[in-house]
Amino acid sequence: MTILNISPIDLSRIVEKLSEVVDFKSDLPSKVFFESGLVFWFFERPLLAFIEVVSGLISKSISSYGMNVFVKFSGDELLDNSCIIFDGCDTENKILIVNDEYVDFLGGEVGYPIVLFNETHDWVAFESAHEEFGVIAVREASLPKDFSEYLESNFISAKILDELALSTTADGLIARAFKKSYSS
């Protein structure tokens, strides 16, 4: 099985549209999303290492929204092999292959940030090299119940982030920084 990468022309179009949603000049824990009307969930990185969770996220997104999911390495850089498409076929095995092939970022050819998203950017997950947590932003107006339920049961909700922020641990410090940027 091979992983389908995106053609240079399609990659340029995808990055252009993604750059309307994500502020690639910012980094976590600052807010990296331009839009309002978003709800947020958080995760410990690296997300792609959690095979069952990310496979479930991709599968649930495809079943809820009816469109492909993309994984984009190196933020808005137009690099070969930096964008992968998931169409819902054999998702878990494709994630395993991505983990094997991208564990060293293709020998340094690609890197952070890593962004996962569906075609119309109803949701976007952003993972930085500089923070232990990543963030998933979802357009509240187009949030299907089953997708919301998946996020609630597999990711850190704003409520749980609030609880983490009360801690005096390193996670508490990180949670407070994210809470400051992502509180409604």
Number of domains: 1
Helix percent band: 25-40%
End-to-end span in angstroms? 43 Å
Radius of gyration: 16 Å
Main beta sheet: strand number and arrangement? 7 strands, antiparallel
Structural class: alpha+beta
Poorly predicted sequence stretches spanning 5 or more consecutive residues: none
Count every helix, treating DSSP H or I runs of 4 or more residues as helices: 7
Q: In sequence order, what are the helices and strands, one letter per element?
A: HEHEEHHEEEHEHH
On the 0 to 100 scale, the average pLDDT is: 94
* Count of extended strands: 7
Report the portion of residues in β strands: 15-25%
Across the major sheet, the strand order is 3-2-4-5-6-1-7
Shape: globular
Characterization of the model:
The protein is 40% helix and 18% strand. By secondary structure, the chain is of the alpha+beta class. It has one domain. Strands 3-2-4-5-6-1-7 form a 7-stranded antiparallel sheet, with helices on both faces. The longest helix has 15 residues, at 51-65. The chain starts with 7 loop residues before the first helix and ends with a helix. 34% of the residues are buried. The mean pLDDT is 94.
Task: Provide a compact summary of the structure.
With 184 residues, the chain is an alpha+beta fold. It has helices spanning 8-18, 51-65, 91-102, 105-108, 145-154, 158-165, 170-182, and strands at residues 38-44, 69-72, 83-86, 114-118, 123-127, 133-139, 156-157.
